[in-house]
Amino acid sequence: MLELRNIGFEVEDSKEILHDVNLTIDDRFVAITGPNGGGKSTLAKIIAGINTPTSGQILLDGEDITGLSVSERAKKGISYAFQQPVRFKGLRVRDLMALASGKKSSLAEDCEILSEVGLCARDYMDRELNDSLSGGEMKRIEIAMVLARGTKLSIFDEPEAGIDLWSFQNLIRVFEKMYEQTKGNILIISHQERILNIADKIVYVKNGTVEKYGTRKEILPMLLSSADAGPQTCSVLTDKMAK
Q: What local confidence, expressed as pLDDT, does residue 236 receive?
């Protein structure tokens, strides 16, 4: 279980990005949504340890991890997938899988994990993580890395960003399968209605604070019908990319 207590975050010139965020995440699949600039990605990075909160506490299974680094939180069981996966010249898919799992796995083991995201291990294990891979392929490889780690909490920051319709449809299937099979918690930052539709709970973040938090059935209809969501948020929640 993840608990955020009175989280605040300021940048230079005392500009406040997050204010008094209180949140308990204990459901298997939670989606965070809201208008651009509202603080969603900042919140995800604070949970992962990329950013340090200006105030407040972060607890994982009752343990205060507020002061822990990214690597220390990774050891505690937190994974983070960026909006744009990092490409490493000279590093192959098999190297990334080994780093993620912490061991040298067999082709059969890697094949099982990569097949979960719709990739054939024999075709990809020796591929270099460079521009020869599409955005959709990089997204799925990064998800496979998270699966290989088998962490308590897997965070995905706008996984739909920068990919085409075909890749997006495949990502939806991957997340649906993750929901069915994973034993940990999944936290996804997303605007897309199709992703929000498979979440147990939805968190609506606006102006640096949590405005709404509840089940999908409670929150999603409110977001789709509320003028307060704003034209920008409403337009992305209609899921134009998936139509």
A: 44
